Amino acid sequence: MGFQFGTTGYIKKKILNGEKRDCTTKEQLLAALVGGFLVAPLSSFLECVMIQQQKFGGTLLQTPLIISRRYGTFSLLRGFIPCSIRDSIYVGCFLGITPCFQKYLIKKYEMNLTNSGM
Question: Does residue 48 contact residue 67 with C-beta atoms inside 8 Å?
């Protein structure tokens, strides 16, 4: 999750290219989708190792070595494509749509972030 925040923030900076303004809705969503996609290789690798540790045991360092010896190095990224799609959608919604929806509620209904509505 921390990498997703950082990557999305980095992409937003690159999109804005030093301009002192807020991202548009499209820019915010694009940055979040790309941020999720860029973190997907790490997520895919870590989830593969985690699942294999749960199934067969082993340490954090032993497990990737065992997997790569047994099935090849690229097997550590097995499931990358579905993982990248999942992470892009998740981060796109969480860090893209949510902030835009918050801005909409603040503007349209004069809400603030600490307003409980009661």
Answer: yes
In a domain, 42, yes or no: yes
- pTM value is 0.84
> Domains in the chain: how many in total?
1
Whether 116 is in a domain gets the answer no
Three-state DSSP state, 36:
helix
Q: Cα–Cα distance between 37 and 5 in angstroms, integer?
A: 12
Residue 40 to residue 36: CA distance in whole angstroms: 6
Instruction: Please name the residues in contact with 21: beta carbons below 8 A apart, sequence gap of 6 or more.
Output: none
- Note whether residue 23 is domain-resident: yes
In a domain, 117, yes or no: no
- Mean pLDDT for all residues in the chain: 92
Tokens of 34: 């790309």
Q: Which of 15, 14, 11 is nearest to 38 (CA)?
A: 11
Q: Give me the domain span that covers residue 88.
A: 2-109
